Every structure is written in structure tokens, then in C-alpha cells.
Amino acid sequence: MGAERKVAIVTGASQGIGAETVAAFRHRNYRVVATSRTIKPSRDPDLITVAGDIGDPETGKRVVEEALARFGRVDTLINNAGIFIPSAFTDYTSEQYAQILSTNLNGFFFITQHAVSAMEKQGRGHVVQISTSLIDHANSNIPSVLASLTKGGLNAATKSLAIEYAKRGIRVNAVALGIIKSPMHPVENHGVLGGLHPMGRMGEMSDITDAILYLENAPFVTGEILHVDGGQSAGH
Predict the structure, then answer these.
(1) Could you say which of 13, 35, 64, 223 would form a disulfide bridge with 18 (CB–CB 3.0 to 4.6 Å)?
(2) Quick one: CATH architecture of 7-231?
(3) pLDDT tens across 46-68, in order?
């Protein structure tokens, strides 16, 4: 199996960090299964796109089934899909709460179950969660308790899964982000947002894909929460 081309699954893959991650894996000759609600069909025979709501249990199942049916294996899962809604705690609505939990936690749970099951049969695999450094350094200027609740849960799950599967050839890690230049942040806000980091700038999407690929190629690293945040988690 080692000589075969590897297969990566990327969630939240239609834009931003997800799309960049798909491109990074394809550049390294991985076959990729990419999913999001609005992802478009692919003409690349080594890139399958599956449209669907990651919070729906059937989406994760379908994505993994497509990977196995078309490519015969699942080597890597990048749990990138996520929703971030900054809000005062008492202003969150029940609909926002349900939406964030559905994407950030349910989406992780269902697809990871199916992917890990496939990896366990292979005797190897790697799962990476995309998290946030706000878990480690709450910021009064960015009230975000639901991000901490859900992404903090993913950090804890990362360590738990890493230990559960350490002797079964499956590694589990996370990348905790600072604020990254992406379509969700208008250019006119970059100066202010950059100032929230000790390094005085925002991160680039390539900083995140480089971190993911580092973990992908680090066989003795598991249970790691890798902070790519311009020093935010270290202090101010």
C-alpha cells in the first residue's frame, strides 16, 4: 500500500484555507476528495468534489464512501469546515448555537468516525483539525465563547483520539490559527487585525498549509496542537 498514491479528504474546501489545502495536497500528487455545501464539480480526475452540509451525518459517510470507491483508500482527513460568529454571549441565538455546533462538532464527529474506520483497516492514517488560538488567549475585543466551546472541544478530542489510536498507526493533530488573510476579512481591516498578533501582522494561508503539510510528514508527532498564530498563544 505504501507505493500507492495517497488520498486526502478536505472539508470546508470550496474557498479560503480549505481550497488552499486542496491545492497544496494536489501539488504533492495526492488524490483529494473535497467537500463543502457549495463546492463545484471538478474536471480533475484526481479531485472528487462532494457537495453537502458537513453537519449532516450522511455527508461524512458519503464523502468517505466516494474516496474508497474511487481511490480505494483514505490516508488523511483535514477537518477544516467551521463557522465563527463573534458575539456577546447573551446575544447568541438558539439558531446560531445549533448552527455552530452542527458544523464545528457534528461535522467533525460524523466524518471522522467513517474516516478513522477506513484508516484502521489500512493500519495507518492521519487526522488534522483546524482550531483557533482564541481557546488559549480569550480576547475581550473578540467575544467568541462558541468558538472556544466547539474548537476547544476539538482540541481535547484531538489529544484523546491521538492516544486511543497511537498504537494502531493513526495520528491525530490540530493546527490552531491566529487571524489569517482570507476572503472573510476585508483588506481595510488587515492593519487592525494584524495588530492583534505579537508579530504585528496577519497570517497567510500558506502558513496554514505549510503547518498541515509539516504534520502530514512528521510520523513521530501525534496529539499536537500546533499554534500558527504570530505568537498569540505565547502572550502579549
Answers:
(1) 13
(2) 3-Layer(aba) Sandwich (3.40)
(3) 999 999 999 999 999 999 999 99
